[in-house]
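Practice set, problem 2.
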Amino acid sequence: MTDPLQDPRFFADPYPTYARLRDAAPVRKVPTGSGGRYSYLVTGYAEARAAFTDPRLSKNTARFFADRPSPRDLHPAVSQNMLATDPPQHTRLRSLVTKAFTTGAVARLRPCIAALVDELLDAWPDHGPVDLVETLAVPLPVTVICEMLGVPESDRPLVRTWSSDLFAAGAPARIDAASHAIAHYMTDLVAATRKSPGETLLDDLIAARDGQDGQDRLTEEELVSLAVLLLVAGHETTTNFIGNAALALLQRPESLAQLRSEPHLLENALDELLRFDSPVGIATFRYTTDPLTLGATEIPAGAPVLIAPGAANRDPHRFPAPDRLDLSRAATGHLAFGHGIHRCLGAPLARAEAELALRSLITRFPNARLAVPAEKLTWRHTRLMRGLTALPLVVCRR
């Protein structure tokens, strides 16, 4: 059996593959890449939710790969970030940044996010073609997280390029090079921020490195790694969320019309949009520290486990008629942001950015339509992220 997640057709529409795998077994052993390596793929909802919280599934990639030689050259700031740790280290690192992404903190950012959305949409033509990904879904979250971290405007195109390269499936040299470039950039930005301090999130992290004593203090390596993670994770998921949600609505005029007539429904509709086409297809790496049984599948110790939120969110045992977008569905139990202690830290910010972007798009451009047939759209070739490379529209202001 070949790796089912490497078929080019998978990137355009992964859901038939997910359904076929889930119907056969919600947890199953599958080939991973080449060289005879295998992982256990979790496609069922109940099994995925359980896996997200099972302490026998570790994210400590440094420990897993310690005695496994690899030709890869990922910078440690990328390969050994907070997402690749377990408690108590994960708990300590996450506590240092949680306050910046609480619902209250995000609520204070909403006026700035709304103003940025208006600025981006003001630049759209009155009539004609526009790429929603390039002109809205990418610059909105990139600008927000760069502002939070104090990344100068002139450097943001580089950040976008490096971040995109980090998810370039099938291009290990490109990924490795991007990891070093963004880590070196962040090291320099930390040094510059120390010389000219301000009131950014990066300043807060530097204070946790320089101004604290005892076990809660950050090391310099942890400081750079945490900043890199926030920079990259702070916009990649949201870019895909906005693009996927916009496409889903544009393909379903009745749902779009419902939101146009009742825009207050959008906040709750976000959960169904996240469930329907999740911005994260496969969650980040985990492995078993002890043998365990997940679903009806026995998994030995030391085995990689891939949890697929994109598949779990289409499990008919949890969401009836899962391939239908239903804005009235109670979809709050979706796993698009993960679950448990590693649930996406930036979920409140991602929701706010997507809500404000989609609300303005719907009200300001009620006649927007796809500029090409949906089957002609191109998707990013990465199984980790699920997102469009471009979303060309034809727009017409009221």
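Problem 2, part (b): a different protein.
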Amino acid sequence: MISRIDLRGDALPEGGALRDLLPRAEFDVEAALETVRPICEDVRHRGSAAVIDWGEKLDGVRNESVRVPAEALTKALQELDPAVRAALEESIRRARLVHREQRRTTHTTQVVPGGTVTEKWVPVERVGLYVPGGRSVYPSSVVMNVVPAQEAGVEGVAVASPPQKDFGGLPHPTILAACALLGVDEVYAAGGAQAVAMFAYGTEDCSPVNLVTGPGNIYVAAAKRLLKGRIGIDAEAGPTEIAILADATADPVHVAADLISQAEHDPMAAAVLVTDSEELAAATEAELVPQVAATKHITDRIEPALAGRQSAIVLVSSIEDGLKAVDAYGAEHLEIQTADAAAVADRVRNAGAIFVGPWAPVSLGDYCAGSNHVLPTGGCACHSSGLSVQSFLRGIHIVDYTRDALADVTHHVVTLAEAEDLPAHGAALKARFGWKVPQQ
């Protein structure tokens, strides 16, 4: 059901050599660019009509308009299961607690007497938030995208999610209800590359945005890559991942359940166990069999995900080597199930989010930990962070110098300008002092 990779014995290689030994899904965004390019160009030139046409072609739904009517949002919230509403409200409450604390404040540094640099944090004006459709329904992704944008102070928030044939061409009603709960009334029945292009170029129905965030399939990722520069993006999200670093103290029932929980997302989902315990590896393999048999989505998602090249049990000689392996892997979600898990977690350098000990499974983070579940995939955790309030803020430096403070540093500026063969840079200062460098 799941393969093994044995890295015990010899010393682990460094850097890229170690990464190459670890399981990883193939996710060729570059190849998908040629598929999404004509879609994006069509939306650029024909606007909403193109979005509607591509929705019919790719989603099997033809709508008269891409904008979701306000009454549909109201109706979805009114008809939402009370238990689901209560769970979403708690998810929102916890997410707000965490994300509100992330807001940066303006700070002024006095560099010299009379010379200051202030860093002011300003939210982007307008964002487009993408919520996937397809195999599952993700109202939690509405929460994870909207809450940090709102806490950052973004004024214009628009959500796009694919039209669903089963719901009259609208996004899933639970997604609409989550938008209504969060006070988002600008929602579009648009998916895939055409939704990203709609946000980037704007249409008759949707004004262009400054930033697009949210996970999606390979075509959403390709459209983000194609349009990056015209819009800001959070990341090119690939298949979801869980890595578990565990020793003999871990419970194989928990480990197997957590691997399966990630595998049920998609047949490309990655489930990786890194352990120094042969006994835990064997017990986890044995435990996977009855747990998989007892769940849903077995043949279309879980079994192909666990059996794929992206999933494996990786055996290492020690937890020290395990740390090297998970740092090389850079998982989207990393669980630490070892003795003294907090101390081990503190040593991890590369992970989108870290879940410490037996009582903090990834599923908690997906919904109600208060953390954000929009996280870097494909090893990008070595250089990128998950979605946060900072994703929606821009730092602007404000430079304020008096005449005396400028005079004091002019000779240094002129020297550096001439060293770079940019004499007009120095001349811009000399002009302020009668074309002479002030004496020190």
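Answer key, part (b): The two ends are 76 Å apart (CA to CA). The mean pLDDT is 96.
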